[in-house]
Amino acid sequence: MPKAVRVHNHGGPEVLVYEDVDVVSPAAGHVRVRHTAIGVNFLDTYFRSGLYPAPNGLPLVAGNEAAGVVEEVGDGVDWLRPGDRVAYAGPIGSYCEARVMPAATLVKVPEGVADEQAAAMMLKGMTAEYLLNRTFKVKPGDTILYHAAAGGVGLLVGQWAKHIGATVIGTAGGPEKAALAKAHGFDHVIDYNSQDFVEEVKAITGGKKCDVVYDSVGKDTFPASLDCLRPLGLFVSFGQSSGPIPPFNMGILSQKGSLFATRPTLFTYAARREDLESMAANLFDMVARGIVKVEVNQRYALKDAAQAHTDLENRKTTGTTILLP
């Protein structure tokens, strides 16, 4: 029987259980996919811990992205066939050897993009795509601040934003992570362990501050992130690795310069098929042309998913992590 990593009770990495699962033949509009590589994201820990509710309750198969090969096609699916290489970011359930899923959530992986790359970049890469092209359309000459610059999304954002022509400022913890971020497009990297990022941003920009702040850290960087924005700037909170931002009075946005704030998710931006295809095409193009390089820095066996989560939450990983079935 195929194996999967499931969560029966919310908690720490120890609740991830490697066990047998049934995988049925696909119904109409669905396909069966055999995974070749599975992406690991901080988002996965939110569903494991219960911070984010499981869409269909417990037990749940963890994970939100993967690449693989189509094994079987259900009725009504005429654009995929067995043997096609595919990848996806959502729905939840990727920590497994094989699964049945809606065909509409899949995109074909083009030549020139390896399975490990595809698995490692779907969620993170399409997050970078919507952040830079849709939530705030970054233009040449813009100045952006990105927290956790050495993380999986951060390393992609740095390269992509630099290609666009922006001034790219990042924060990271320690000299090794700062050096990694600088090697991936960041013009300036602030070590939040030893520097005040608000003061550093003011110094770097000559007091003008940033057009947009992208923040996946949450509690530890708020409200200081707002002090890095120019008047009418945009605060983009798209994660909470340090914990959720506490409730705040909206008046703080007016006090700090008539600021805008948003809490986007990839799954909203990619809900329409045409948007999913457009986002994936943009991402694959950047990778195929070598503008954005996707580097897998950590690999674990699927059965060792708990160790992968432990290392991720203890900030022992950089860039991209994958599981191998």
Automatic annotation (TrEMBL):
It holds the Pfam family ADH_zinc_N. It comes from the Bacteria. Keywords: NADP, Oxidoreductase. CDD domains: QOR2 (cd05286). The keyword Transcription regulation does not apply. SUPFAM superfamilies: GroES-like (SSF50129), NAD(P)-binding Rossmann-fold domains (SSF51735). Residues 11-323 form the Enoyl reductase (ER) domain. Gene3D superfamilies: Medium-chain alcohol dehydrogenases, catalytic domain, NAD(P)-binding Rossmann-like Domain. GO terms for cellular component: cytosol. GO terms for molecular function: mRNA 3'-UTR AU-rich region binding; NADPH binding; quinone reductase (NADPH) activity; zinc ion binding. This is Quinone oxidoreductase. It comes from Aquibium oceanicum. The lineage of its organism: Bacteria, Pseudomonadati, Pseudomonadota, Alphaproteobacteria, Hyphomicrobiales.
